[in-house]
Amino acid sequence: MKAARYYGFKDVRVEEIPVPEVPAGFVRVRVAWAGICGTDRHEYTGPVWIPMEKPHRITGQMAPITLGHELSGVIVALGEGVSGWQVGDRITASGNIYCGECDLCKSGRVNLCENLAFNGIGRDGAFAEYMVLPAYQLFRVPDSVSLEQAVLAEPLACGWHATRLLGDVKGKNVAVVGPGIIGLACVFAAKQAGAEQIMVVGLGRDNEELARLVGATHYVDSRDMNPVEEGRKLTGKPGFDVVYECVGVQSSLNTASELLRKSAKLMVMGVFEKMPQFNMNIFQEGERVLYTSQAYTDELRDILEVMEKQTIPVEKLITARIPLERIVEDGFEELLRNPSKHVKIAVQIKAVD
């Protein structure tokens, strides 16, 4: 089968590898679609998390490894002991690989497992014609949701989880710095949770229409507008109650921090390739609170229910569709050339929907 394999810095090769065996407790999936995540892009110019020198302690795998953790597909084989699933079921999947034995796993916070691994990083992932998944990662795709649409369930769940961690945002003024897929996921989740005003800050206006479609009430192009001044005009207050940082660079962190009013909450979602400087005095002086969020627990189920109700225009969030064979030039390299042009590049692996 064909698979996109990561070997190192900007070295991803589409090559032939064997179809994976199906261990007990796993299923084999014929992958239909797989999304290129910001994490995948970080690994392409990294590595960041992919084990390069010794195998991962849970999976036993290391580079070369098949990338990809945002996926949809159809079950084609069941491993021993799998129940509740059958061949032909349409699925998407969590990326969390966890031990189930540490305190965090036992408390239900499997996304924080002490031995956490992730599909496409610690174990072969979805940029392949077939992959194997543990049954505990599976989520059923509703009949009214296409497999192309379902590939967005995983990134949308990240915003849903982050918003849950923040607590009650009903009636709050919210700002989101960065209108990529994670930023838009946070906009949608905050809107669904009852946020009053949602201002999105972007570098350019490429994604303004999409931001408004998923719930933004205002959009600021930081190239020619001052986000802090615009925020004060919008809220009539010195800042926002809740701010999401969804880029992962120093300038976006600075902007997000400056948008906070006293006693506000900052949710950092961006992955930083370079260690940022952080003005802790902003937080100490106004009893502001810093939150972070990692992946999700069971929020994919919530997102799939939302998709079933067709309350989010998921198909419009896919800004390019490419074949697996073009994943480097039209995928990873395209994201480096035109980072603000795309929300989600979806890779069609197999036409199975």
Automatic annotation (TrEMBL):
<dbReference type="InterPro" id="IPR013154">
    <property type="entry name" value="ADH-like_N"/>
</dbReference>
<dbReference type="InterPro" id="IPR050129">
    <property type="entry name" value="Zn_alcohol_dh"/>
</dbReference>
<dbReference type="InterPro" id="IPR011032">
    <property type="entry name" value="GroES-like_sf"/>
</dbReference>
<dbReference type="InterPro" id="IPR013149">
    <property type="entry name" value="ADH-like_C"/>
</dbReference>
<keyword id="KW-0479">Metal-binding</keyword>
<dbReference type="Pfam" id="PF00107">
    <property type="entry name" value="ADH_zinc_N"/>
</dbReference>
<feature type="domain" description="Enoyl reductase (ER)">
    <location>
        <begin position="8"/>
        <end position="347"/>
    </location>
</feature>
<comment type="similarity">
    <text>Belongs to the zinc-containing alcohol dehydrogenase family.</text>
</comment>
<dbReference type="GO" id="GO:0016491">
    <property type="term" value="F:oxidoreductase activity"/>
</dbReference>
<keyword id="KW-0560">Oxidoreductase</keyword>
<dbReference type="GO" id="GO:0008270">
    <property type="term" value="F:zinc ion binding"/>
</dbReference>
<keyword id="KW-0862">Zinc</keyword>
<protein>
    <submittedName>
        <fullName>L-iditol 2-dehydrogenase</fullName>
    </submittedName>
</protein>
<dbReference type="Pfam" id="PF08240">
    <property type="entry name" value="ADH_N"/>
</dbReference>
<dbReference type="InterPro" id="IPR002328">
    <property type="entry name" value="ADH_Zn_CS"/>
</dbReference>
<dbReference type="InterPro" id="IPR036291">
    <property type="entry name" value="NAD(P)-bd_dom_sf"/>
</dbReference>
<dbReference type="InterPro" id="IPR020843">
    <property type="entry name" value="ER"/>
</dbReference>
